[in-house]
Structure formats: C-alpha cells, structure tokens
Amino acid sequence: MSSPATSVVVVGRIPREPPRFVVRDELARLRRALERPAAAVVVTGLRGAGKTHLAAAHARSLFDSGQGLVGWVNAETPDSTLSGLADIAQRLGVADPDGDSAVSARRLRDHLSGDTVAALLVFDNATDADHLRELLPTGGRTRIVITSVDRSFAAFGDAVDVTCFTRPESVRYLADSTGLGDDGADQVAEDLGDLPLALSAAAATMVGRRLGYAQYRQLLHDSPLPTVLRRTAGHDYPRSVVQAISLCIETTEGVTGDYQLGADVAWLLGAMAMLSPGGVHRSLLATSPRRVDEALERCVAGSLLSWSTSGEALIMHRLVSRVLRERGSNTQSISLFRRATAALRNRAPAARSTVELVRSALAIIMRNTFPPSQAWARRQDGAHLVDQIDALWDTGMVHSSTRKHAAAMIAVRRWAVEQLTEAADTARALTLAQDVVISSEQILGGEHPDTFTARYLLARAHAACGRLDEAAARLEAYLTDAGQVLGLAHPVTLAMRFQLADTYLQAGFLDKSRALHTENIAHSQQVFGADAYQTLNFRGGLAQVHLSAGHLADAIAIFEDLLPVYLRVLGADHVDSFLCLHKLARAYGAAGRTDEAVPLLRKNLDDAMRIFGGDHPVTLACRNNLAEIYEAIGRADDAVRLGEANLVERLRVLGPEHPDTLITRHNLACALQTAGRLADAIALFEANIADFPRILGSDHPITLLTQGGLAIAYSASGRWDESIAIQEASLRDRLRILGPDHPDTLKARNNLADALGVRQPGRAIPLLEANVSASARELGLDHPDTLTYRYNLAAAYHAAGRIDDALTNHRTTLTDRLRVLGPDHHATLASRDNLAAAYRSAGHLDTAIDLFKTNLAEYHRALPGHPRLRSTRNALADTLRAAGRFEEAIPLYEANIDQQEFGPDDSLTGRSINGLALAYHAAGRFEEAVQLFETMFDQTKRALGSDHPLADVVRDHLAAAEQVAETHRRHPTNPPA
After folding, report:
1. Bridge-partner residues for 40, per DSSP?
2. Residue 160 is inside which H or E element, if any?
3. Is 843 left (phi over 0), alpha (psi -120 to 50) or beta?
4. How far apart are CA 273 and CA 833, in angstroms?
5. How far is residue 238's CA from residue 5's CA, in Å, rounded to a whole number?
6. Residues 428, 422: Cα–Cα separation, whole Å
7. Are 355 and 398 in contact (CB under 8 A)?
C-alpha cells in the first residue's frame, strides 16, 4: 500500500493525523534518539496513550524528505509482522519470487543492512521480542521504531516512554475539540486519567450528544462498566476510560435519527472489532449491501475509526476493539422480531452479541475470497485477507458462537492455507495448516470430509516446503483412512491420491506415481466423466510421469489428446490449458522433435507474458525452458542470450541472493560452457561457488549442483585434478545428506566417474556399476537415468580397454534406447556414436564407418541443428583417415571448420582443424598441414592455455609436420617418412 505522491517510498497503513492532534514533547525526544545512524527506539506506554500516533507523526514528517523508505508494519503477531515486511520487500524488488513471507522478511533485512539509502521501519504494537530480533537490519542507514506495551523491548534501543497527556495538554485538547472552552475541562481530564484515547472518545460523545462538561461527567458517572473486562499486563485501564469509550460507541451508534444507519454503524464497528488491528482495506467492505460510506463517515467523525495515510485502509484502535468485543461477550442475541420492533419505534440499535460479531466478520471475509487460480496474481490481496482470517480466529470468540460459524471459520482458514501455498508463502502456510488440522479434528471430528481436506492441505504444504518424505508419509496414512471412511472415489480421496502421486514423482518413485494416477483416472471417469476438469488433470499427471520416465511417445500422445479438450472446456487462457501446451512442448523437445518444440515454447513464452506478466515465476520458467532447448539443439548463443535476459530480470525482481536468481546464474554458466565460452563459464561457476554456500549453506541442493557444474567445466578445460577433488567432495556430501541410493547421490557418483574418465577408468568403473545397480533397483532398468548410467559404464569399459564389455553394453543400451526413447532421440544417436567408436577401437573400421554414416544421416534428418552432428562428422572423418580413406575424410573436416558460425575458439573446430592437418599430411599436402597446425596451435593456446593437454599434442604434430615439410622442400622427390 503506497503513500500519497512523494519521492519517498512509503509502504504500510500509516494512520493519518487525527483531528486536533497534540504535538507532545515525546515527539521531539523520539526524533533526537533517531538522529544517530542505525538507531533503534522503543516507544512504550499504556494502550491509548498515543504511541502509535507518535510514531505515525514522525513517519509522516519524512514524506517530503527526499529519497528513502518509510515502512509501517503491524507487529502484533509473527504472521502479521512477516506479512508487513514482505509487502515492503515486494515494493523494493527484493521479495521472494515464490511468495514466502519469511524468506522475503530475511531478504529485506539483509538488503537494508547494506543499503546506503535512509530508511525508517516502524513495528507497531510489537509483542514477540525473540521473533522480531531476527528480522531487524543491523547496518546501513535504517532507523527502527518499535511501539509496544511490553517494556522488555527497551533492550532493543533507546526507550521513549509515552505517558498520558499533561493536564494542560488534556485541557487544551478538550477545549479545541468540543468548542466548550477550558472551564470544566480539567475535571473531565481528571476523570479520564488524561489518557489520549479516552479524551478523544469523550470529545466525540460531547459533540455528538451536545453535552457540556458537567453533563458529560454525570453521564460518565451513571454509565455501567462491563465487569468482564479482564486485567492484562499493560492493559489496566481506569473505570472511567472504559466508560468513556463505551459512551462514544453508544453515541456513534445511536444518535442518528435513522435506525437503519445506526444498525449499519453498529454492524461496521462490530466487524472491525473482529478484524485485523493493522487495518482493513476499504475494498473488503465494498461488497456489503449496507450503507457503508455513511457508516464510515460517522465512525471516523466519532473517533472510533481512522484512515491510513494512503486512504486505502481503516484502522480501529485495539482498546476500542476490545471494548466492543467484551460488550459482545456479555450481550445476548436479539431476535429479528425485536430488532424490527426497535426499528419501527426508531430506537437505537441494540448492542451486538458474540454471534452477530462473528457473523459480520465472517460475511466480509467470505464475500472476498477468490479461486486458487488467482492466488499468485492476487497474492497481496490474499495475504491481507489471510491477516483478517487470522485476526478473527485469534479473538477466540468463534468458539463461543454457533457450530455453523465454527465450520465456516474452518472453511475460510482452509482457504487461507491453500492461498498461502499457491502464493508460495510456504512457511506461513505450513504453520497455519498444522493448526487447521488440529481445530478441524476438535470441532468437526476426525472422520469429517473437511478434516480430511485439511490433512490433505497440510501434506501439500509439506511438499511445497520440499519436505517430500514427510508429505509422502502423511499422504500414505491419510489416503488409507480416507479410502476406508469416505470411499475410494470420493473427491477428497482423489485429491489425496493425486497429491501422493505427484509427491512420488518429485521423489523419483515413478512406478508408484504411475499406479496412483492410473487408479485415479479410472475412478474419476466413473464419478465425473471423461472430459471433466478433474479427469483431465489426472491424465495430465500420468503424462508427466511418462515424460519423467522417458516414455516420450506415451507422454506426447496424452498431451496431444488433452490439449484440444482443455482448449474446448476451459479456454486458451486458462492456466491448465497453458500448462498442458507447455508440457507438450517440453515433451517434443525431450523427444528431439525440436522443430515442433521451439515454436510452441516461443508461443508459450509470449502467452505467459500476456497472461501472467513479465516478472511472474511462470514467465521466467518459460524463458528458462526455451533457453534449455536452445542449448540442447546447439543454439547455444540464443540460450546464452535468454539466460542473460532471465538473470537481469530476476536480479531486478528478486535481488541477487534469491534462490531462483542463483539457479539462473547456474543455468547461464552451463549455457556459456555449451557455447564454447569456457573461460566465461568457469568464471561464473567460480563466482557461484563463492556465493552459494554463504547464502544457501554448503549442503543446499543448488550449492551441490553448481559444484558439479564447476567440476565438469574444469574437466573440459583439462583441470582434471581440481575437477576430481570437487566431485569427490560432492559425492561425500550427498552420501552424508541423502544416502547412497538417492537420485541426486547417483548423479554425483556419475559426475565423479565422468571426471575420472579417460585418465582413471579403473576407478570410474566400480562407481558406474554401483550406479547402474542402484538405479535399476530404485527407478527401473528403462528409466532415462539408468540408461545414462549404462551408457557411461560402457564408455568407461572402452576407456579401460575392455572393448568386448564396451561393445556388449553399448549394443544393449542402443537397443533399449531405440525401444524406450525412439530413433530420433539425441541420447539414442549418442549411443550409436559410442558403439561406432568402440568398433573403431576394436579395429572393425568398416563397421564403425557404416554406423557413423548412419548416425550422420539421422542427425541431418531428425536433429539438423544439434551440436553432436558436427561431433559425429568429425568422428567419421577420423575413422576414414584411420582407414586411409583421406580423400573422403578431408571434405568432412572442411565442412566442420566454419569460422563464421562457430568461431575460431570452438573446441570441436580445433579438433577438426587438427584432423584435417593430419589428413593433409598423410595425403602429402605438407605445406597445408603446417599452416593448419600453426593455426590450431595459436587457437588452442588462446582458448585453453599453453598447458592444456591438447596444446601439447598439437605442438608435437606441428614440430613433426615442419620437419617433414622441410625434408620435402629439400628433397621433393623423396616420399615422406
């Protein structure tokens, strides 16, 4: 919620200056205390003493001060504190993109701790010192103001104790507010203990009832005191103060000459007393059929409500709220007949009971909820509504109302859990979900369908937090109970089964996931029908399992079948239609059908920009996926361009230390390596390694991922020892954190084996044999990861000289990839390449040449832009040269040397130049060979360094070629040695 037009960024619901505002000495003391850098000042005192208005006066005075920040946070509960800080982080562009308010609060703290721009943060009505301490900036130019009735907060900084008005201040305020002068004001101030809030209420009553001081004192004396107003630390109010506020409420409700308006005023006050003390957006009241604007005007005039500085929110003082709630607790419900009778006689509306207060607040909340599909786009609205839901529950009065109200309250709290989960405010969602399950079991019973829904939402919240084991364990138990109590085809049971299937998918248990989705589809078709929304989603879940399992034809068939149904039933702009198209495009890409995938992903990105906006997580993910497929098909420069654009956007929206920003940095480094920009890739990987452990921790998956990326880049640059050291450490970490059979542990073991590679194949082979065994056991023999480990094991056998084992494993892997992935998949073609290479090493050059030729034709047909096409052409040329078929090899090498397309520093170009030089040399074209070796040596030194192993090889070739060329120049008739 922004401020009025100002150069200062203002976020939060700052109270406006009240009428007849008294400038007190404490304001000057507050400002002096804030003059030192990074100051923290605690404003303490009784409720109603004016702490909030004192802090607000200072905050408002900064609006025209120039550049800076003024942030106002309702700190009454941990959730409201996090929500307020998240709003500020969002405005400054440092919020968690996934919407987690706890992460956003910490990111804001870190941002302000290092910022050089002046800032003020006000934490109003703070209650939890331990929670708040962790969220305060510790440097920069941020000043902190904390208001609280709890004087233990004084340990945070300088204390400014706000007492009541001085007597002259009280007299002047009453005289100015009522127009009655000073005579008699002293006695009223005495009766009210000089408490500013009570004086405000008294003035409003005297003006509203046209009373003098003496008449008001008599009325105050005769007014009954609610005897149940509990004494709480910091809340001990004199009898007369409560009476003063009660009189102000009665005056505002009753003296209108319009019974219906009085009833609407009573309704508004009652609802506001139950909602968040941090403020209620005016928009939440817009859906009411009551005369809200007139009621608001009267309540503001009566000093019972005030506007925030932005004019967007209404604020009720906490003491006024408490008086209204206590009055409701001691009021019996009145029948509609008695209210109608009172209206006919034009009497003042009767006080509203607990039941009526709860009903009013619930009605406002329920009219303002919205579908989960809007959760992200309306996440700020959702967070504000969750604040209202929490505030209503925290009054404790729902339990004293009707069972119908209790059930409705649980329903809106379930909505709040789903809203927070969909908006990715995962920490808050999990805390709330746990409490909702407990209250559902207590109020509705353990076998009620809504209780099962609450349990389902709790499991979803665990999954959203990345706690897959906990989510799966809970869902397994919940699903068993739901099947027994509700039935196997009950909608709640279906939802639980779908969530468990998705959790299994994330954890890598594809067979379990596939079985659950298949069962769900059968039940859903019977209950809802084949084209029902639920059935479509369950089929989409099954297709996603096929995609993850590498069953690409099955996945594509389902997505192609689903897409027209989604478009017909839901429309093109529905999020599920959008995601179906997105997944189909990714399936095309995984299957090597890049000509179909790229246009769809481009359209997907354009649609995401139109539907969700440029900085939505879905849009950024679409750009990332398009970059990935560009990298896969050899358009590395385009992948880098998109990756750089994504990084700029995520830095702007999320800040430099958000996990999604860090992932984008990792992906960009990978794209740079694929593009042949090895030095740039290593520099970015090394920067990532310097930052990620500090930001995320050394055991975080993203940290481990980028360690592996750096090791692979080191291997590519010939820094084998450094690569192996990193991969060994990474494997140790994953074994410790995840265990020996976790998919990420298998990948780390595979990466270590890859780093050992050609230099130490004997060490690589047992690692890969263990991987193949574990992956076949956990994921299945046909899983894409298992096929990858089998492929790498065959390559290790080849490097170790175990050619027969290599040939056997390459043949079986190629056969299985043809069956599982299809003939056009890039992994299938890679298997044929390696089988051909093994035949070449075994001396079967003709067989190898035939296989390479077949593969080269397949690349031209299916994947003409894939980077391995040039590798295959180079391998074929090398094999032809080895077979003495130089005239066939030379044009293949020459076709690979395309400086304009790939650049002189491309490593494959270098190998092709080296091969061409050797072919020229073998064919007796010695001068051409020397020129190429010289070019190759210069490029190798520039791209890889003079110490790279390839540089040594080229140097030796160059020396030999120069010697032979010199001999040939001297004795041109002699054949070369």
Report:
1. 144
2. strand 158-161
3. left
4. 74
5. 42
6. 12
7. no
Please answer whether residues 76 and 278 qualify as being in contact, where contact means their C-beta atoms are separated by less than 8 angstroms.
yes
Q: Report the alpha-carbon distance of residue 881 to residue 447 in Å, rounded.
A: 76
Is 398:405 a contact under the CB 8 Å cutoff? yes
The whole-angstrom distance between residue 340's C-alpha and the CA centroid of its chain comes to: 52
- The residue type found at 565 is V
Rounded Cα–Cα distance for residues 909 and 894 (Å)? 10
Residue pair 617/664 in contact (Cβ under 8 Å)? The answer is: no
pLDDT confidence of residue 954: 73
For 575, other C-beta atoms within 10 Å of its C-beta total: 16
- What are 435-463's pLDDT values in tens digits? 999 999 999 999 999 999 999 999 999 88
Residue 224 is given by DSSP the state P
Q: In sequence order, what are the residues at sequence separation of 6 or more whose Cβ sits closer than 8 angstroms to the Cβ of residue 164?
A: 46, 49, 170, 193, 194, 195, 196
Residue 76 to residue 55: CA distance in whole angstroms? 15
Candidates 356, 344, 20, 63; CA nearest to 171 is 20
What DSSP state is assigned to residue 156? G
- Report yes or no: 657 and 107 within 8 Å, Cβ to Cβ: yes
Cβ-proximal residues to 616 (8 Å cutoff; 6+ apart), any chain: 376, 377, 608
Question: Around 328, how many Cα atoms within 13 Å sit in the side-chain half-sphere?
Answer: 29
**How many Å separate Cα 17 from the centre of its chain?**
37
CB 544 within 8 A of CB 583: yes
Strand partners, 313: 281
**In 210-238, where does DSSP find H-type helix?**
213-222
| Contact (Cβ atoms closer than 8 angstroms) between residue 609 and residue 89 | no
Find, among 440, 277, 274, 266, the residue nearest to 358 by Cα. 274
How many Cα atoms sit within 13 Å of 305 on the Cβ side? 31
Kindly state the tokens that stand for 167.
């007597």
Contact indicator for 935, 897 with CB cutoff of 8 Å? no
Report the distance separating Cα 813 and Cα 822, nearest Å.
12
For residue 726, the number of C-alpha atoms closer than 13 Å in the C-beta half-sphere is 25
Count H helices and E strands in the chain, helices first. 44, 9
d(CA 546, CA 522): 17
Distant-in-sequence, close-in-space partners of 901: CB < 8 Å, separation ≥ 6: none
Q: What is the pLDDT of residues 814-869, one digit of tens each?
A: 999 998 878 888 889 999 999 999 999 999 999 999 999 999 999 888 877 676 88
| DSSP characters over 22-89 | PP-HHHHHHHHHTSSTT-EEEEE--TTSSHHHHHHHHHHHTTTSSS-EEEEEE-SSHHHHHHHHHHHH
Question: In this predicted model, what pLDDT tens digit does every residue of 663-709 receive, in sequence order?
Answer: 888 889 988 888 878 889 999 999 888 888 877 667 666 777 788 88
Indicate the helix (H) or strand (E) that contains 379: helix 379-394
Q: What angle do CA 659, 660, 666 make, to 5 degrees?
A: 90
Structure tokens at 528: 């809802």
Q: Is 369 helix (H, G, I), strand (E, B) or coil?
A: coil
Report whether 164 contacts 135 (CB < 8 A).
no
* Contact call for residues 413 and 436 (beta carbons, < 8 A): yes
Element (H, E) at 148: strand 142-148
How many other CB atoms are there within 10 angstroms of residue 195's CB atom? Answer: 27
Whether the Cβ atoms of residue 877 and residue 895 lie closer than 8 Å to each other: no
Longest CA–CA separation in the chain, Å: 133
**Residue type at 232 in one-letter notation:** T
Hey, what's the torsion of the CAs at 286, 287, 290, 294, to 10 degrees?
Answer: 0
List the beta strands (DSSP E) in 302-395.
306-307, 313-315
What is the Cα gyration radius of the chain?
A: 36
Measured between alpha carbons, how far is 784 from 550 in angstroms, rounded to an integer? 5
Residue with tokens 């995520």: 650
Question: Are the C-beta atoms of residues 653 and 613 closer than 8 Å to each other?
Answer: no
